[in-house]
């Protein structure tokens, strides 16, 4: 029983990520292997699958983005506090605060890193399927692909962020 207590968060994360992969894998397979039949524009998906896929994608996107944002804010705060304790450079110049990516990733739990990798892998598969299938894919595929692109743009904004100068 102690093992379950110690691993409870990992179990919850594994179940959540496994469910995300299973639901989106099902969507990808149904859309990927669907051949236009002349009667319908896109493959029919039942309402439960569409709802589950949408909720899981939105939840995982929000969870990973907020975890990254909070972690970056913590690193910035800690570095600003350290800079405030240091004497300023020559002629009263402030020091520059650069966010070191390894400082951010070192503070992320393995569960968050796994969630980001799973979200990116499934999201990229969805994006590629959407680009390949075009109008023969579903609105659900298009919505997730656009959501992934938005997430990537936000993440890229952090990754390619230039040096910040504190005054």
UniProtKB/TrEMBL annotation:
Keyword Transmembrane (UniProt)? yes
What protein am I looking at?
Answer: Uncharacterized protein
Ranges annotated as spanning the membrane: 12-35, 47-70, 112-132, 138-160
> Which stretches of sequence are listed as region Disordered?
78-98
Native source organism of the sequence: Pseudarthrobacter quantipunctorum
Q: Which UniProt keywords apply?
A: Membrane, Transmembrane, Transmembrane helix
